Amino acid sequence: MSDDRAPETSGVAASPPAPDAPVRQGVFASLRIRNYRIFYVGMAVSMTGSWMQATAQAWLVLTLSGSASVLGLIVALQALPVLLIGPYAGVIADRVDRRRLLTVLQALMGALAATLAVLTVTGVVEVWHVAILALMLGLGHAFEQPARQAFIHQIVGMSLIRNAVTLNSVMVNAARAVGPAVAGVVLTLVGAGWCFAINAVSFVAVVASLIALDGSRIAQETPVPRAKGQLREGLRYVRGNPSLWIPLATMALVGTLAYNFPVTLTAAADFVFDGGPQALGFMTSAMGVGAVVGGLVVAARGTIGLRPLTLAALGFGITIGAAALAPDLLTAICALFLVGWLSVTFMSTGNATLQLNSEPHMRGRVMALWSVAFMGSTPIGGPLIGAVIEATNPRVGLGVGAIACLVAALLAFLAHRRSRERAATDL
Q: Ranges for the Major facilitator superfamily (MFS) profile domain (predicted)?
């Protein structure tokens, strides 16, 4: 049954649930809200196309260059704008109408995908073309990510944000399961250009969904007036709250060295398992399926806070290590299923912890820092992991990511314990 209540307005921040406490909800609780259903379906179509493009783009670059380092550089270029202007993009997300901003950005990113499709289908594409378009796409993502994360809260409200964030992660990873698998078939049959063309068309769905939303059912947050020092204000706000800076620091480390799967899995599919684009599709899809299953578990009964975030990082590291040591493709696919499960648990726990501990007028800036930690760390980690793979092999590249997760879990545990000791002393 549809629940079309308008989400609570944002004038007063609701008290977050107790940290580490399980919150029981129906698996699809947030989808009872009609606006979120419409937005969710549009994003699901677009995300599937985006994963098709990511897979095809990685394979195209590796085919054109024959170098994992070049592939890592292209991945880094796409994430570079998030690193450089991500925090400022969060300020913009707090200043403007997020729905309008998202509509414009999605249309522009669709045009970029169409341009790459034309270049590839006509046979004139070169690595530098891909690099420029990847950089421009990353610029769109820099502004889109914080606006979309904060906009979800406007649609579903405080009580359902954890469920909505988790289902959003499920959707992204379901797209990760379907998109690369379809891309593998399309790559084999007609080439990368048609993957890019399909992605360009998929953006129509998300633009249409944004236009179709019922504006009266969207919580209206008063835009933050333009003023000097708003970026510094956001950084000070995060620095003074351990429930915010610890998840961000943990994600920064994990994002830099572990979330380089377009590089590590592409190289492993080709150089370790000699399986071609179909092997890459199966490996990436296995992660997506695992993330869907894990995400549904978290959506039904999940926890928020620093302790479950630490445990998720620990499990994430162990499963990546298992994938790195897999003796054959089938074992790697099984391990990557678990990698996907722990990946979505880690991401959704961190994301929901930030959203529930952020004040409404700061949420765009906080979520921009989350995007910087997750995507903006790739310009550092992408080339670094690519160079590691060039010097050694893809297994070592995955192993570095596994170690990073384990170190992040340890640091988060120690920081959390220290912050609790300080709080107890202050009392």
A: 30-420
Query: Tell me, what DSSP letter sits at residue 301?
Result: E
Residue 23's alpha-carbon distances to 291, 298, 341, in angstroms, are 20, 10, 19
CB 296 within 8 Å of CB 27: yes
**What is residue 13's predicted lDDT score, i.e. its pLDDT?**
39
| pLDDT tens-place string over residues 73-120 | 887 788 788 878 878 888 888 888 888 999 999 999 999 999 999 999
Alpha-carbon gap, residue 60 to 127, rounded angstroms: 9
pLDDT (0 to 100) of residue 302:
59
Cα–Cα distances in Å, from 130 out to 77, 106, 133, 146? 10, 19, 5, 25
Q: Return the ∠ at Cα 62 (arms to 59 and 64), rounded to 5°.
A: 105
The token pair at 215 is 């504006």
- Alpha carbon 415 to its chain centroid, in Å, reads 24
What's the confidence (pLDDT) of residue 263? 84
Q: How far is CA 298 from CA 31, 63, 147, 236, in A?
A: 15, 38, 24, 31
Q: Which two tokens stand for residue 419?
A: 């912050």
DSSP conformation class of 29: G
d(CA 287, CA 345): 12
Q: What is the pLDDT of residue 58?
A: 86
Counting as low any pLDDT under 50, the low residues of the chain are 1-2, 5-24
Report helix, strand or coil for 234.
helix
Contact 198/48 with Cβ under 8 angstroms?
no
Query: What's the CA gap between 355 and 150, in Å, rounded?
Result: 8
Residue 154 near residue 98, CB atoms below 8 Å: yes
- In 3D space, the residue among 201, 200, 188 whose CA is nearest the CA of residue 63 turns out to be 188
Residue 426 to residues 69, 239, 245, 401, 418, Cα–Cα distance (Å): 50, 18, 20, 37, 12
> C-alpha angle with apex 305: 301 to 311, nearest 5 degrees?
80
What count of other Cβ atoms lies within 10 Å of the Cβ of residue 247?
Answer: 30
| C-alpha dist (Å) from residue 110 to 2, 67, 197, 200 | 31, 28, 9, 5
Q: pTM for the complete prediction?
A: 0.68
Q: Which of 42, 16, 49, 11 is nearest to 221 (CA)?
A: 11
Quick check: 180 and 285 in contact, CB under 8 A? Answer: yes
Q: What is the pLDDT of residue 6?
A: 42
What structural domains and CATH numbers belong to the chain?
26-213+227-426 (1.20.1250.20)
